[in-house]
Amino acid sequence: MTPDDLWNRYSAIWSISDTAGRGNELSVCLADEATYCDRNGLLVGHDAISSYMAQFQASVPGGRFHISSVLHHHDRSLAQWFLTGADGSVLQMGTSFGAISDNGRLLAISGFFHPASSTATA
């Protein structure tokens, strides 16, 4: 899977409401010992990340992440993303850093949220 494909597939997981389906996709995209970190804290493992995604879905019904660009070299990548609401409006923009494991799955993800003033256009 190319880095672009990986980030696009990973970003789609945030919209999967079925716990089993979300778990299956996490297994494809994330290393077993994967971590996720954003301003709300650090999560370790698929179960913790899946629970966080479910909380996101409850707080942003119909929210979807979209990858606008990916930069990649060696085992590192940066993904520019934007979050849309159920009506398609842009709610947030950000950048995520990812370290990629030897088997091509995301090993560590750090999400950064851009200031509100940069959400005007995606």
TrEMBL record:
It comes from Rhizobium freirei PRF 81. InterPro entries: NTF2-like_dom_sf, SnoaL-like. This is SnoaL-like domain-containing protein. Residues 20-97 form the SnoaL-like domain.
